[in-house]
């Protein structure tokens, strides 16, 4: 393994491996440079920084009306509440998690879901991301919260994680599966999970009933430099890797209110129309899949 650079956190040098492919190098750079207000200002609400979308009904009573004083602040808080609600639903599907166990967050971003998992279960959480900036950010937040002994992010490829086989009681991908081959990904989760362990993903996938990826799905792929898979591909790749689905939940109706609200905010990024149109025309779905490692 060759190192390309050194990243520092609190003065300690950390080894950063070279990307496994030119594509992974592009994705590492993408997330190293990302600083969209729609993510940072939402995270500033309570210190949980997410790179995923929201679910649930909008609380119109809490939001008030455009033109009311502080409306924009309440809108940001509401979008953030819906994003955290999404992570809570993912954690709900991990099943019972003991304090002495370790969880793996594959594609952990700035670490919001890891912090929530530790706060809920008291367990250890190991996160991996391609981005040294994100790993530093997540580790800094864990340090500020005094939970650095339990929550830790590192720069590494989720297809080749430096964890012993069977070490994880549960693992997940929160909106990070569209950057990798699903057979390779589920083979690696299957390796690190204990037999009887639980895997959960929340993801956007194209709907085989539509036929092929729609122009909206292609637009989302181009926007994020990712490769959205079909729903069928998830289920096939799980079946091939000893992951047996226990729940497949279509969250599309639950995520539309988030997008409709976000489209009215000053923090729009331009991708809102593609999500709203593809969810409405049925070509794209927001799904949760929970599977047992058998
Ligand atoms: C959309 S963000 C999701 C972040 C996080 N799961 C969340 O919910 O906030 C996608 C994440 O996947 C990570 N990622 C993409 N490909 C990866 C790979 N091959 N190995 C590790 N992380 C990867 C990126 O670095 C980024 O952190
Ligand atoms: C559901 C799908 C297809 C997701 C693609 C992966 C992705 C980029 C998620 C959100 O990240 P973000 O929170 O950084 O994006 P944004 O800046 O749009 O909020
Ligand atoms: Mg976001």
Automatic annotation (TrEMBL):
One Pfam family this sequence matches: Methyltransf_11
Keywords: Methyltransferase, Transferase
Keyword Iron: no
GO annotation, biological process: methylation
Database matches in InterPro entries: Erg6_SMT_methyltransf (IPR050447), GPPMT_Stmyces (IPR049645), Methyltransf_11 (IPR013216), SAM-dependent_MTases_sf (IPR029063)
Methyltransferase type domain segment(s): 104-200
Gene Ontology molecular function: any one: methyltransferase activity
PANTHER family attached to this UniProt entry: GERANYL DIPHOSPHATE 2-C-METHYLTRANSFERASE (PTHR44068:SF11), ZGC:194242 (PTHR44068)
Protein name, UniProt field: Methyltransferase domain-containing protein
Annotated organism of origin: Streptomyces olivaceiscleroticus
């Amino acid at each position: 393994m060759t190192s390309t650079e050194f990243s520092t956190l609190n003065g300690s040098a950390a080894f950063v491996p070279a990307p496994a492919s030119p594509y992974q190098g592009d994705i590492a750079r993408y997330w190293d440079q990302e600083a969209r207000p729609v993510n940072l200002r939402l995270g500033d609400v309570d210190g949980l920084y997410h790179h995923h979308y929201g679910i649930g009904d909008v609380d119109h009573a809490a939001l008030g009306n455009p033109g009311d004083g502080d409306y924009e602040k309440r809108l940001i808080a509401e979008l953030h509440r819906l994003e955290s609600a999404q992570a809570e639903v993912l954690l709900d599907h991990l099943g019972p998690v003991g304090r002495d166990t370790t969880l793996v967050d594959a594609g952990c971003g700035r670490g919001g879901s890891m912090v929530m998992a530790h706060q809920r279960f008291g367990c250890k959480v190991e996160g991996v991301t391609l981005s040294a900036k994100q790993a530093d950010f997540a580790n800094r937040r864990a340090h500020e919260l005094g939970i650095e002994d339990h929550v830790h992010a590192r720069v590494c490829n989720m297809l080749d994680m430096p964890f012993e086989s069977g070490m994880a009681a549960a693992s997940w991908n929160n909106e990070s599966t569209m950057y990798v081959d699903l057979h390779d990904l589920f083979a690696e989760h299957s390796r690190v999970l204990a037999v009887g362990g639980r895997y959960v993903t929340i993801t956007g996938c194209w709907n085989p009933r539509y036929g092929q990826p729609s122009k909206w799905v292609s637009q989302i792929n181009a926007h994020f430099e990712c490769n959205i898979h079909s729903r069928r591909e998830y289920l096939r790749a799980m079946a091939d890797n000893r992951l047996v689905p226990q729940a497949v939940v279509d969250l599309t109706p639950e995520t539309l209110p988030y997008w409709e609200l976000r489209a009215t905010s000053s923090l729009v990024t331009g991708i809102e129309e593609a999500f709203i149109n593809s969810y409405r025309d049925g070509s794209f779905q927001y799904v949760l899949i929970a599977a047992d490692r058998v």
